[in-house]
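User: Hi! Is it possible to get a structure for several chains at once, not just one? Here's what I have:
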Amino acid sequence: MTSQSQNNMIQEAIRAQKTREFFAAYPENPKAYAEDANQKGLEVFQKQLNQNFSLGAPENHSHWVGEEVSPYMMVGLGIRYPQYETQLLIDRAKNAWSAWKNTTVDERGSILTDALNRVSNRFFEIAYATMHTTGQSFVMSFQASGPHANDRAMEVISLATEELNRFENTVDWVKPMGKFDLKIHKTFQAIPRGISLVIGCSTFPTWNTVPGLFASLMGGNPVIVKPHPKSVLPIAIVIEEIRAALKNAGQDENLVQMAADTIDNPLTKELAQHKDVKLIDYTGGSAFGDYIEALPGKITFTEKAGVNSVILDSVADAQAVFGNLAFSTCLYSGQMCTAPQNIFVPSNGIKTADGHLTFDEVVAGICGAVKALVENPKMGPYTLGAVQNDLTVKRVDEAKTKTTVALDSLTVVHPEFHDARMKSPVVMVTDAADTAVWMHECFGPALFVVKTESSAQSLELAARAATELGAITCLCYSTDTNFCKQTTETMNAAFTPVSFNFTGAAFVNQHAAFSDFHVSGGNPSGNAGFTTPEYVNRRFVWVGNRYL
Amino acid sequence: MTSQSQNNMIQEAIRAQKTREFFAAYPENPKAYAEDANQKGLEVFQKQLNQNFSLGAPENHSHWVGEEVSPYMMVGLGIRYPQYETQLLIDRAKNAWSAWKNTTVDERGSILTDALNRVSNRFFEIAYATMHTTGQSFVMSFQASGPHANDRAMEVISLATEELNRFENTVDWVKPMGKFDLKIHKTFQAIPRGISLVIGCSTFPTWNTVPGLFASLMGGNPVIVKPHPKSVLPIAIVIEEIRAALKNAGQDENLVQMAADTIDNPLTKELAQHKDVKLIDYTGGSAFGDYIEALPGKITFTEKAGVNSVILDSVADAQAVFGNLAFSTCLYSGQMCTAPQNIFVPSNGIKTADGHLTFDEVVAGICGAVKALVENPKMGPYTLGAVQNDLTVKRVDEAKTKTTVALDSLTVVHPEFHDARMKSPVVMVTDAADTAVWMHECFGPALFVVKTESSAQSLELAARAATELGAITCLCYSTDTNFCKQTTETMNAAFTPVSFNFTGAAFVNQHAAFSDFHVSGGNPSGNAGFTTPEYVNRRFVWVGNRYL
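Assistant: Yes, the chains can be modeled jointly so their relative placement is included. Here is the combined structure:
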């Protein structure tokens, strides 16, 4: 791909960003790829097992570390990554920075678009790497870690290109002083903030990592990626390709480095607290996210936990709603930050186009839809995927002991992977007053149907959860225009977007690049979002010089 | 002024902002005003003395407070302002917010432009109010608190208008799904963050306050202004006019309130820590600024202390340089956040077009220029103005005891105000190694000439001071292109803008709206600047709703 066509792609992306219309730089349908691409990707992945993955990085590593375990095979992948002393990573980043900060915005955009093209040649390999670290299904692994992650990166490249060209670089300023004009020549430059640390999570190792990574690079900053020790390979492949693109362009590859570590000896705090680290991106739990946000002198971009609500008021087609909710809940076994957790239903039930449904009938309907999906052999295992972490299973089992279980986990055997860690969603029923049960994040395959006095109370509780605990999504089913309006106002005031009456192929879990903002940044679920202007422009500083 | 012409003005301001060219919505030459405007402004100011100033605010105040003292007359102004309980201010702000947050961006811009026009009718009154609270000269009081402050407000209105129109409000999103298209209607809204607290300073009560005030209002937020107890009247007049514009437009005046307090019983922490206060603007000392920045859950915009450097390497016309430095130092007796403090001069002196000057000759030249300006009866008193605060005098006297004094304060009597608190700049000489002397902010009429090994060391020390203590400006005199380039790179890396070889009418102290960014936000002198995109867009949150 030529630099010219890369620049055209960026211009097209800027246009798409402005109108927030659907944009896809990369075909997301695997059929669009070469017929043997899938097979070849699988082979490359398989050859990598039990081998060292060096990322083409220079030597001087202190250890080889690797502790990824396939949630499908329940065996370690045996892949080891070089680990480096923190100060060595910092020194290399500084070194690589000296040339990069003087590159033009166009050069950066062109090199990073080249990197995305290189990454797209490895989508299948990345898909298998994602599948066997996160437990996502193959299709989700392909989409989320491949084209959708690349789209998010492209979105960042386009927005950063626009922001960095926001002001004229040189201006001749003239001030009439009466008898003469005062003339001053001024230059304006976007100065990069400094070393950027991007901390990845275990469930979406590329999708949640590339926006911060690309935003920092576009802003002229060197990046150290600290992946989750259990989900390294997908982002390691991406980093390898960015390094290849940098090398090809004559830049120092160490502009992007990977800081591998282990669960027992994490390097995250040492890196985050280092005085030369100025920018921190973080995806993960709230406790650590709060620590990151409170670090003095750092600019942080966080995505933390949230409690997503469904407000069930009145529906046209109850079965379509239950089916939609079941899919959103089962998708990747509820391990999405966008998945619903609490479904608020009035105690006197809901109106439907086919008559009234009691509270118990609603619960039964949801349970039935989950059961039907889970037990559908062509759909269930592929929708659920596997559970990334044992703790997720334990968390859900613990939750079960505290309230009424309407539908327990069903036995699901993955047809290809008999040892896969499977856990279908547990549907629990609780009362609005039992906040100890539902008023906290229960990440994983758990769904609480919360009995409320009325839809008004449902809305009030959904807003309270969003304000106090954070929320990334909210789903509202209502045929009452006024209630929809109230819900919009109340949830938006809690900085939570609302999706209305989603059925069919529209799912609340999906946040599309170039269209949906992901995380508003206004409630405790995170302080930043993909991709608002400040997500990129806080990574550099405008400085103007003046020459008489 | 019609709404249409107000909107035209905003569009013009947006264009000017993009090109960062000189823009003046309001004539800054007092001669452009009515012939009796000055006299009338003075009379209104005089009538206000020893009277209550109610801001047209509703009752229920708990006290009347006021402790402003004229630095020119050294007597209290006797003006008292209503003080309210914090919770009452918060409740009124929330109340006023409910309608304001649903106004359109155009409505907000139009009402606030009307407010600026109303303010412009009171420029002379504001000038006298500023003069007799801050100690600024009449001309500076007029410019800084009048047209220049209005320009900064207009700059914010224009940038916010652009940011708030950044994304389409409605989009029909279509995703091809193979056999069918998935169509989702999406809306995007900028949701205001919440109550905004704007904390003013004693020296620039309107110029430093209106940017945050107008930015928060444009973002849809209610504002509580907490002025410095010693500089209330100038911003009280501005607030009165904003309230009048709001009332005229049918909006709740309490959208902008003033929280008067006293030195002994400050309300600032109580307001800042209130859970409903989400945005805080602050101008003032570093210790309190650090406290503000560290408050959890608040978005802050701070301008704190800094140590501004002059790097003297080589000059064309030494006398022109000394004259320029003398003016920048004498202007408002060094009480500007942009004023130079430390002049770094190599021990072996500097090259000039007329030959070499030794270090001592440079010191003598600076002292001579300061003396000549101060002792010029037509220039000195009017350039110096008066000193706002006794502590500033004490600080400089304390500094004098710690190093060599090359030029002590001279006796200056203001021809109109014999009791004025006058203090001409003290020029001190110190060695680079004596960091205890010069490596801290000494706000006020104090200038340190710091003897360095070389210009390279001068640059290194200037950058170190900027990085560790913050800097808002840097002045460099050099005829060496390479050294200028190095200075640009090094100081810009410390997020400090550099002005090169300023002589004549170009002064480092001046930061013009629509042209100069004021405070970069990248070093300890503050975390935000007038006016970058994030200065406005962090005051609201983009939230998108989706409708199937």
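The mean pLDDT of chain B is 94. The longest strand of chain B covers residues 181-192.

User: Great, thank you!
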